[in-house]
Protein: DUF2202 domain-containing protein
Organism: Methylomonas rivi
Amino acid sequence: MKLIGLILALSCAFPVLAGGKPATANRSSAAVLTETEEATLLWMREEEKLARDVYLTLYKVWNKPIFSNIAESEQAHMDALLKKIELFGLIDPALPDVGDFANPELQALYDELVARGKLSYVDALTVGATIEDMDIRDIGNAIAETTNLPLKTTYESLLEGSKSHLRAFVDLLDQVGVEYSPQYIDQAVFDAILDI
């Protein structure tokens, strides 16, 4: 009888022994986000959609692979952020149609960037560099404001992707004799990303 009691006690203390899942695997056990972390996560999801949608639109205009290739990467960024939104039980703010945004600030920015990118191929590349420049600043801020490991890990992965995208756009601008100057990140950070 004592043995049965001991087994039951251990089963309650260690659910894995009883065939249950460890508490850390339960969605409900995910750390609670602060209001700032929630707002940032939702903003980042739409900001990545902004990048993807601008690149999809500019690909239709210029038919250059850089826009379709980076749009695919931005979709992966969006997917990673959606997983975090679902993990923390939040409502996804991203609208399904390309170029549609719930946030009026992002809607205005999308419209402005697409209009600029349609002026010329060089303008389109500059728009791409500008988007990545802005993303790097915003992702860096998001990393700095959270101690949540799942968020920080996701943001750090996005940051590396945005650095790669920035290098690609700046390289193509260099090839046509146009120098891009950072608008959102410090020149020193920009130079470090480009390994200047």
Remarks:
- The chain is about 70% helix and 0% strand.
- The helical segments are 2-13, 35-62, 65-87, 104-117, 121-145, 149-175, 187-194.
- Confidence is low (pLDDT under 50) at residues 1-29.
